[in-house]
Write a structure and sequence with these properties.
Shape of chain B: globular
Oligomer: heterodimer
Number of strands of chain A: 10
Largest sheet of chain A: 5 strands, antiparallel
Shape of chain A: globular
Mean pLDDT of chain A: 90
Structural class of chain A: mainly beta
Number of strands of chain B: 11
Number of helices of chain A: 0
Helix content of chain B: under 10%
Distance between the termini of chain A: 37 Å
Structural class of chain B: mainly beta
Radius of gyration of chain A: 14 Å
Mean pLDDT of chain B: 91
Strand order of the largest sheet of chain A: 1-3-8-7-6
Order of helices and strands of chain A: EEEEEEEEEE
Number of helices of chain B: 0
Largest sheet of chain B: 7 strands, mixed
Low-confidence stretches of chain A: none
Strand content of chain A: over 45%
Helix content of chain A: under 10%
Low-confidence stretches of chain B: none
């Protein structure tokens, strides 16, 4: 079983739709849960992160973590064509140990105008 | 803002060549990473370094080596390039000493390498 699983998509929605992107993970030691956004031909950039369970909102974006089911979600409200990108989840232990992040394989989102 | 700069956006090399990919970061980060990204396979860790002259193998180190002689620079070396190393290579850095910042990678823009 992969440590982080993510549906690769592609996911195509009309402009204005609510988008739900999801990941599952297997390691209960993860404490921080990050979402990266990657535009075509660019490197990923950190979009937002949450600590432990619960929700975090940032503008049109809401990150949600359910540690009991090891399930991570990113919701995008009022989606825009500029949101078209690949979204990668990345859970982390959050300590300063010498280890690297494991990323989900990414979900490609296309928002149609 | 932290900036991670990769020396080339696009490279075309011949099979058997020795290839150097350079990455420089300007925020005094301890950790630096090399990933490759392929369709359907996501980001796969090749090597990472948590200090000068230190290196750790990632998930797919075969055919690669790295060098970190200075804190700000992390080089990926393809000893003898092969066609299956055609990929997007991404460098990233992160801090290990500022609480709460360890989990935030900053990535470069990537180098798209084609081996012919």
């Amino acid at each position: 079983q992969k440590e982080v699983e993510q549906d690769p998509g592609p996911l195509s929605v009309p402009e204005g739709a609510i988008v739900s992107l999801n990941c599952t993970y297997s390691n209960s030691a993860f404490q921080y849960f990050m979402w990266y956004r990657q535009y075509s031909r660019k490197g990923p950039e950190l979009l937002m992160y949450t600590y432990s369970s619960g929700n975090k909102e940032d503008g049109r974006f809401t990150a949600q973590v359910d540690k009991s089911s090891k399930y991570i979600s990113l919701f995008i409200r009022d989606s825009q064509p500029s949101d078209s990108a690949t979204y990668l989840c990345a859970p982390s232990r959050g300590d300063t140990g010498r280890r690297a992040l494991t990323f989900g394989s990414g979900t490609r989102l296309q928002v149609q105008p | 803002d932290v900036k991670v700069t990769q020396s080339s956006r696009y490279l075309v090399k011949r099979t058997g060549e020795k290839v150097f990919l350079e990455c420089v970061q300007d925020m005094d980060h301890e950790n630096m990473f090399w990933y490759r990204q392929d369709p359907g396979l996501g980001l796969r860790l090749i090597y990472f370094s948590y200090d000068v002259k230190m290196k750790e193998k990632g998930d797919i180190p075969e055919g690669y080596s790295v060098s970190r002689e200075k804190k700000e620079r992390f080089s990926l070396i393809l000893e003898s390039a092969s066609t299956n190393q055609t990929s997007m290579y991404l460098c990233a850095s992160s801090s290990m000493t500022v609480k709460g910042s360890h989990y935030g990678y900053t990535f470069g823009s990537g180098t798209r390498l084609t081996v012919v």
